[in-house]
Amino acid sequence: MTGLLGSAGGAALVFAATNLDDIVVLTVLFVAARGTGRPRPWHIVAGQYLGIGALVATSVVVAAGLLVVPDPWTGLLGLLPIALGVRALLARRDDDGPPAVVGSLLGVAGVTIANGADNIAVYVPVFRSLRPATGLVFLLVFVALVAVWCAVAALLGGHRRVVRPVGRAGHWLVPAIFVAIGATILVSSGVLPRLAALLG
């Protein structure tokens, strides 16, 4: 029992450490859903599960030695939130609410994958070191914590202290957050020096 609780605690720690920034993304998506109806709340939840599931599945496959992820080229995924943010900034809107930066389940999943591409670097050695039973505990904890993350973000996205400022400045704030997330992914991944060397 102690071993099970220890494994669950370790899984929770790994998940929280690698997905803190997802709270911001999810909250922004829930605020946009509240203001524009897009993406729908179930798109956000299902897209988060799909995105995290893809990251974990890739990590497990890499940990098993069946696939090699070209690092740091995964940092190019940062271009996705940048493109979404720029598109939303350029879009004309008739109201003052936050723009629908992401409008579909697959869009949410794509942003989740892009924002969590660096998680693979943490998950691979973790899953490589786990016994199958412990790995199953990790997966179950991850499934539960995705629901917790979505619930917390939905609460924040419905709180007036969050909704009010985002409603006032949402036409530029929400896209700017996505651009900032994408830029952070590009810079922190180390892909920019690789690109510069390749092009130079």
TrEMBL record:
<keyword id="KW-0472">Membrane</keyword>
<protein>
    <submittedName>
        <fullName>Cadmium resistance protein CadD, predicted permease</fullName>
    </submittedName>
</protein>
<dbReference type="Pfam" id="PF03596">
    <property type="entry name" value="Cad"/>
</dbReference>
<feature type="transmembrane region" description="Helical">
    <location>
        <begin position="12"/>
        <end position="32"/>
    </location>
</feature>
<keyword id="KW-1133">Transmembrane helix</keyword>
<dbReference type="InterPro" id="IPR004676">
    <property type="entry name" value="Cd-R_transporter"/>
</dbReference>
<feature type="transmembrane region" description="Helical">
    <location>
        <begin position="102"/>
        <end position="124"/>
    </location>
</feature>
<feature type="transmembrane region" description="Helical">
    <location>
        <begin position="73"/>
        <end position="90"/>
    </location>
</feature>
<feature type="transmembrane region" description="Helical">
    <location>
        <begin position="44"/>
        <end position="67"/>
    </location>
</feature>
<feature type="transmembrane region" description="Helical">
    <location>
        <begin position="169"/>
        <end position="192"/>
    </location>
</feature>
<keyword id="KW-0812">Transmembrane</keyword>
<feature type="transmembrane region" description="Helical">
    <location>
        <begin position="136"/>
        <end position="157"/>
    </location>
</feature>
